[in-house]
Amino acid sequence: MKTTILIAAIFFSGMTFAQEKKQDSVKTKSIEGVTMTKQVFKKQSDRFVYDVAASPVAKGNTTFDLLKQTPLLSTTDDKTLKIAGKNNALIYINGRKTNMDAESLTQFLKNTPAENIQKIEVITVPGSEYQVESSDGIINIVLKKKMSDGTSGNMRMSNSQNKYNASNASFSVNYRKDKLGINANLSGGENINPQTYILRNRSGNVQNESVGDIDDPNKNLGGYLNVDYQLTEKSNLALSWNSWANKSYNSTINLLNIITRYDNNDNLISTDYTRTKNKENARNYNNSVNLNYELKLDSLGSKFNVNAAYLNYKRFQYSDNNTMISDVQGSTSGFSRTGKKIIQDIPQIINNFSGTVDYIQKFKNDFTFSAGGNFNKTKTDNDTKNYTYDYIYNNAGQLQMIDLTTDPNHFIYDENIYGAYLTLEKKFSDKFSGKIGARYEITNSLGTSDNAKQPEYQRIKRNYNNFLPYLSFNYAINDKNNISYSFSSRMRRPSFWELNPVKNIITQDNYTQNNPFVKASSTYNQELTYMYKNSYFLILNHTYEKDQITQVPLQRSYIDPETNQKRVQLAYIRTNFGDKQEMSAMLGVQKSLFKQYLTLNFNAGVQHNINNGTLNTDPTTGQVFDTYINDRKSTSLVITSNNTLRLDKKKTWFLGVNFFYVDQQQIELGILKDLMSLDLSIKKNWNDWTFAVNVNDVLRTNLVEIEDFQSSGNYNYIKNDMYRRSITVSLTYNFGNQKVKKVRDIESASDAIKNRTR
């Protein structure tokens, strides 16, 4: 994970419109060539089901492309998927939560062929049996499974061009022999993630501006292996292994920093220039294994499930940050006092052991009783080292580093979570069904540091218990009309990297600060859904979050002791920041028209945000900044239109026209200005081959721009260009016997960990 550019993640942490791509986060396109001979998109008691196995929509696409085109799912950053009205979308595969960090998961989905998918389930308000946090929704990807003995699979190669070129390849295989089933995938690629920034902030009479580029080269390799063996007619044993590795060496930041000072009449007094050149080498490894045993208890579907899982995540990150005095052109030569050098060594190791037990008893009167428990034991080891030097030229004219200061911090975080749930589900008639449940969670955590400067860092202990109720009902008015309602309460625990009290330095006066004192927030979700003919739907959603966890921009002006000049400092502080409400209303249609020549996936709605937070002190250092207040409201329009046009009778040529627009809205950092993107694609299916060309962000309008004005006069502005306009050419080949059936759903024991290893 590229933490020196964590500021990119700031932009999307508050974006909850029907969406987004971190995580990304969640993620907006359309289903292609759906054959409407059966219900392709339908509402079940607690989820929307999108059946894509029988349609050509999946052919030639990646799993990520297919998810972007699924009703209720969208993306604006091409990294994080979002469910309409939700903060985050957790990815499940065959009922098991993926345990990859967010960046590895994105690459994994982009390298897995969509031909492997049977259906996609979107669970907007998960029940008590799911270990989820905050207002998270679930995207469950159900993979295909062979129904007859033999081997099948596919190979995919692609090449993309934006500012730089990128290439990816993947190979998938599915094997079945009698009681044994195996499916596996291996994928990898190389790319350079480019970004261009304008960062501008002002406090009092001092303004700071940083302009420049970030280039982040990446090499990725990973895959999965799933083995399922039928022990008896009633019992199965399954083993799943997921692995992903990323190498990001020679990532660079190159920024020209301009400090301008004004008098009380806003007349320019002076201008200083510095050049920031940072280099980072990082690599991370993510391995998880899950062992599942399932025992079928009767013919009604009663079963007993046991899972045991282990997750190991390692990240090693070394950065060399240099800020030098320069001239207006950015040249750093000819200055006797030159600047600072900061070296950061920021490793993180996470080990998680977890287990779950689930008992589901079904009765003949359409009544289901479910109960279970879970245990998660996690240890994170963060041995951070910072070294700061001053640069000067000695008498011989040679550049020399002096005045070394060190700032080590070995922070270890241990966390134990115990959970239990009870769920009662009843189908009262063919029209009405309901579900009620609750979770009870006990969290014990201890953070320790053997070299902390502040005594309060040496031992941070937090214990809390939470009762989390859940309620839902579904009413089929008739065969065309359906209405459902859900309520849930959840906790949002901080991610492990958020708790590590490390400062990630961008420039001399711009940094991000994590916080070991962040406490869990509480979230309450309500959702009302109306569906007509399994094609038209209305979703009303309300979310209230107490003590929300976010990154707050704090700034202050200060006197530089070396130059006796006034400067301005901007820090993005991770902390609990007041309360927040989000309300949304979304109208949608998923329908095939004109004898199935046109497939329309259209959503339009409004989102209303209410923010209420105030902060002026860094909780980790006690440093006082100017007060930052976000007590504003905003209402924004959201539109996604994803259209697929079949160009021939044989269903071999398809044209995709996909568009999204998100109106400006108030987020934690200020006003996020409107975003939109037009994406075009053309695809040709020929026997077992699929050729595709995709052009994203044709009009180059998907640029992040945030602006904030405080009543104190403080100002903050961010513009971020991630070069999302790109063209991708791909080739996919399918081989073997393609007859498939649904795989057995398995929920992993380490569900609660995935989105906390970002």
Automatic annotation (TrEMBL):
Its main location: membrane. InterPro entries: Beta-barrel_TonB_sf (IPR036942), OMP_b-brl_3 (IPR041700), Plug_dom_sf (IPR037066), TonB-dep_rcpt-like (IPR039426). Pfam families: OMP_b-brl_3. Gene3D superfamilies: TonB-dependent receptor, beta-barrel domain, TonB-dependent receptor, plug domain. The keyword Membrane applies. It is found in: Cell outer membrane. The keyword Ribosomal protein does not apply. It is a multi-pass membrane protein. Keywords: Cell outer membrane, Membrane, Signal, Transmembrane, Transmembrane beta strand, Transport. Residues 296-733 form the Outer membrane protein beta-barrel domain. Residues 1-18 form the signal peptide. PANTHER family: HEMOGLOBIN AND HEMOGLOBIN-HAPTOGLOBIN-BINDING PROTEIN 1-RELATED (PTHR30069:SF29), TONB-DEPENDENT OUTER MEMBRANE RECEPTOR (PTHR30069). This is Outer membrane beta-barrel family protein. It comes from Chryseobacterium nepalense.
